[in-house]
Design goal:
Layout (H helix, E strand, L loop, with lengths): L11 E4 L6 H10 L20 H10 L2 E7 L2 E10 L4 E9 L8 H11 L5 E3 L5 H8 L18
Parallel strand pairs: 4-5
Antiparallel strand pairs: 1-2, 2-3, 3-4
Helix pairs in contact: 1-2
The protein binds coenzyme A (COA).
Length: 153
């Protein structure tokens, strides 16, 4: 596969929970407009944002984490949750906007899915992102329902 070059050196891909810190991930996520705030009182924000501790659990609790680096800068991230046999969920794929449309997002998702041959992967997407996943071979089905723990705060 041809290397992706944006600013000089080829983009380096890595994997594993220890390849990225919550701070680096928060910085990348902010670059695409995702909110990661500390909740009032310093606790967890359960309203859709996330604090650094929660991002740490996102990283540590994923089955596989993949990252893309331009030098020391995190420019892409993706993660999946899967049983490794039947079902998987690709989630939170993000590429720093200056690096869009260079094939980095595709490679991140291909690395996630390529690690689990035969697994059926799902993703939740809206807007422009639908086209991105369609280009990667995903098809939309109106058969998914979602909820948080109904007993939760
Ligand atoms: C979605 C996102 C990850 C795509 O990353 P990217 O590195 O620009 O994607 P790629 O360059 O690998 O694109 C792969 C394919 O999707 C297409 N594509 C990418 N973004 C697209 C868009 N917004 N609309 C239509 N097609 C798009 C590309 O043209 C490419 O097609 P091709 O390989 O057939 O030429 C990036 O735009 C992003 O981080 N968006 C904000 C965060 C987000 O919403 N993430 C998704 C939540 S899971």
């Amino acid at each position: 596969m041809r290397p992706v070059v944006v600013t000089g050196k080829p983009i380096r891909f890595a994997s594993g929970a220890d390849s990225v810190t919550p701070e680096q991930l928060a910085d990348l996520y902010r670059s695409v407009g995702w909110r990661f705030e500390v909740a009032e009182g310093g606790g967890e924000d359960r309203s859709g944002g996330a604090d650094l501790a929660r991002l740490g659990r996102l990283i540590a609790g994923s089955t596989l984490v993949v990252t893309a680096w331009d030098g020391e800068t995190l420019v892409g991230f993706g993660r999946c949750l899967t049983d490794g046999a039947f079902i998987g969920y690709v989630n939170n794929v993000a590429v720093r906007p200056q690096y869009w449309r260079r094939g980095i997002g595709r490679r991140l998702v291909e690395k996630l899915m390529g690690a689990y041959p035969g697994v059926l992967f799902m993703v939740s997407a809206t807007g422009d992102v639908v086209s991105f996943f369609e280009r990667l071979g995903f098809k939309g089905y109106q058969t998914s329902w979602m909820a948080h723990d109904p007993q939760g705060d």
